[in-house]
Amino acid sequence: MKLLSPPVQARSSSYNGEYGGGGGQRFSHSGYQLEGPITAIRIRQDNTCIVGLQVRYGKMWSDYVGGTEGDLEEIFLHPGEVVIQVSGKYDSYVRQLVFVTDKGRKMSFGTDIGTSFTAIPLYPKTGLRFISGRAGSLIDAIGLHWDVCLKN
Question: pTM for this one?
Fold first, then answer.
């Protein structure tokens, strides 16, 4: 009797990071991805770093992480648009974040100081699913989690 192997499921999830320092408290938006794809991002920045962030998954905003100083900016993704690359700069905290979408949009926050990083998914046809990291009075570190994205 020949035993049949179960079908092999293609891998799709990958991770980049953590970029930054070891300060602050850990955070993860892993549970929010169940609310839907990333549809908007709020970034608080000052003239030296990324101070705080908040991400909307479907129609639900994540908890805000980080500090209260600086200017708050908000970007909305177009229907079906997916973040396919995140780059930036860091040292002991996150200095700059640049989001690039599959529609060719590039959204930059923060300042061009520190060590560069570029994060992309390992597998094709995947995008940014959720963010994790460390935060206190600013964003100390960031991790990027990639997987198949449902269209918003």
Answer: 0.91
